[in-house]
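Researcher: Re-running this chain for the archive, since the previous output was lost when a drive failed. Same request as before.
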Amino acid sequence: MKLIDFDGLFDEKLAQFMEENKNKYTEKQWEDIIPKLYKKFGDTFVAKVKCTPKEYYAKMTEAELVETLRAHLREDVPVPEFLCTEIESRGEVETLAPMLFDEDEAAVSYAINLIGDDPNAYDAYFTILERNLSTEDVRSDLADIFKLHADEVKTRAFENLQKGVAEEYMLEILSRVKEKEDRIFEALLSAFLSGENVPMRASYLAAYNDERALSYLLKKIEDRTIGFVEFQELKYAIEALGGEYDEPRDFTDDKDYLAVEAAASKSSKTSEGEFRS
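Model: Regenerated structure tokens:
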């Protein structure tokens, strides 16, 4: 199948239509008219392909639909809504599953956006996380999907954590579980007490929202060896769990603190300059 820029063809027809009717409609009316014209275009015979845009994609196999979508992304040609609608009608997960393991990040991201949080894709999503496939951005997007459905996937996430597989992602997912379990709390606490990635793991305890973590957070924040970033995240976690920590601390020699102060000072000076001008 030849790659056809249906959106480009529509834009040409739209430009002509708007020129012929330029004094007929307000800008607001055009906002309502254009989507209707696009929908109508889907059922319009296009001589170039000897069928309508909808029919063009309806004739394709699932494999051809996927390859066409890949080609649109690869060649930076706008993806027509008619192509996405046809994929949806065949079942996004069934049709797009091969794209989830594509080497092209754009293709994987597009497939995930079309599939969304369909539970039928969870196994493939977990495989990407477990095997460290695709880019960090893609894996973070998948973790975000699982965080919204943490109670549904907690068993597999916990099993992976126990095996040390994609540990940080599994901790992040488990921190969003709403139905509290001692084993999950203990896993999150154990990860925090390990001393690794303290700021992030403190945020997991805050997200899990179990007050039993408060005493451990308060003890850790008293550690005078922690840096500014760790301190700030610990303080946030303590406050999120209903606690307080107001003892003043001196971070004037901390590089992260100095960077934050420098950025704040620069922003302030820029704002003053804009105000004066």
